[in-house]
Amino acid sequence: MLNSSGYSNFQHNGVQVLRVRVFYHDKCFDGACSASLFTRVHRERIVAGASYEYHGLVHRAGALFDESEFTGDENAIVDFKYSASPKITWWFDHHLSAFLTPQDQQSFLDCKQDPVCGGRKFFDPTYTSCTGFLAHIAATQFGFDTAPVAELIHWADIVDGAQYESPEAAVEMAAPAMKLTLIIEATQDPAFIPRLIPLLTELPLAEVLSQPFVADLLPPLLKRHEHALELIRSRAEERDGTIFFDITDRPLEGFNKFIPYYLYPKATYSIGLSKSSFRTKVAVGSNPWAKADPPKMVNLAAVCERYGGGGHARVGAISFPPDQGDRARAAAAEIVAELRAKNPLG
Ligand SMILES: [Mn+2]
Description:
Elements: H1 8-11, E1 19-25, H2 29-46, E2 51-57, E3 74-78, E4 90-93, H3 102-112, H4 115-118, E5 121-123, H5 130-142, H6 150-160, H7 167-172, H8 176-186, H9 192-200, H10 205-210, H11 212-215, H12 218-235, E6 237-239, E7 242-246, H13 259-263, E8 269-275, E9 280-286, H14 300-305, E10 310-311, E11 315-320, H15 325-341
Helix pairs in contact: 2-5, 2-9, 5-6
The chain binds manganese (II) ion (MN).
The site of manganese (II) ion (MN) has 6 residues, from loops.
């Protein structure tokens, strides 16, 4: 379909198959949905008959990208930071902290001046989800029909934008998208999300969840969720509108980030210090249901950036190497003090 871009090399004779590698925000519902939607858009509107491989990316201390992984004929990054590598041919992101360095930002601005590159790399931090952003670009620039993926876009916006109707909806997780999010955020199997991704734009979410390779993972996670709820209930303390808890002594590979507001519905902010196998994490969030006056809200992405982290205005995180718990604890204590001093309800 794009005659000028070299795809004809891969379509003649039916011999050579275009290999597309899709790099996505790992263990994230929006990341998986974005990878699935990118695939469908690419297959339906860019080139048919390509093969797709999926590779998750995580925010961690140190280098985010291993450029030796960019081995596709095309390499796409969705819902994750910009890479200036010339091997990256597609990029879609909506994070405020999309650029690691001013050089990366300049690289993107230069790309937008180039007719080919500029038509394949897209950034808009006003979008709630990368899936919703990608759908908008696909519809307006590539003639993609978003109607068949409306459910996916709806739930990506709810999950990534934390737009649940209540803390109970977020923590009790009745909807299929919520249970899929629980599974996606918890998986330790590198083959699981790549297997799940294609289904997300092929089946209704309830049917994705009912696939045996998905459904079988749910019961132990629901049990672990109950355990995390009780652990955080026993550790969390709320003062001046800010909740703090430290569960680094009880390693968990992730937990529902709305538990603090389920426990303290009137709190504005929460800072959670937790430890997993590969990082000590300071999670800095704000209560999506709080009635605080938005102009008085602290920009949490900016707070996290001061410590080398990032995120969105209302939720961010900082990752430290697993052996630097003291630095993580000191950063968390400073942020707790800062947010308690700026209690928007106080
Ligand atoms: Mn996202």
